[in-house]
């Protein structure tokens, strides 16, 4: 079984749904992007014994929102559209990773793409648009 690599952090209590599904971890990279990871557990698996697609989508949403908001430093966001393509399966015990790319950031929207990977393979690709929400 894999383990969470050194240097990753998590924020328990920030988002109850992500706490329940994850925990999900993140690490800022030197180029301003974020790498996100989680360890696939039995609770994440479907009837076929593979990580449920909805879990991969939830993880991708976590990662893309981290990227879109710079870890919620000055704003929050809400996902407007999300499109995913499942490419391969993820098994229990595998470390799942994602480093999303912000393709465009406007005054009110952020466009993000990425790939969720495991065991050296792309498991899911995605694209999303999020609405920027200013913190009060």
Descriptive notes:
It is a single chain. By secondary structure, the protein is α+β, with helices and mostly antiparallel strands. The protein has a single domain (about 15-135), classed as Hotdog Thioesterase (Thiol Ester Dehydrase, Chain A, Roll), CATH 3.10.129. The protein is about 15% helix and about 40% strand. It has 2 helices and 7 strands, in the order H-E-E-H-E-E-E-E-E. The chain has helices at about 15-20, 55-70; strands at about 25-30, 35-40, 75-85, 95-100, 100-105, 110-120, 120-135. Strands 1, 2, 3, 4, 5, 6 and 7 form a 7-stranded antiparallel beta sheet that branches. Strand 6 (about 110-120) and strand 7 (about 120-135) form a beta hairpin. The radius of gyration is 14 Å and the shape is globular. It starts with 15 loop residues before the first helix and ends with a strand.
Please give the structural blueprint:
Elements: H1 16-21, E1 25-28, E2 34-39, H2 53-69, E3 75-86, E4 95-98, E5 101-105, E6 109-118, E7 121-134
Antiparallel strand pairs: 1-2, 2-4, 3-7, 4-6, 5-6, 6-7
Short recap of the structure:
With 136 residues, the protein is α+β, with helices and mostly antiparallel strands.
Distinctive features:
40% strand; 7 strands; alpha+beta; 2 helices; 136 residues; Thiol Ester Dehydrase, Chain A; seven-stranded antiparallel sheet
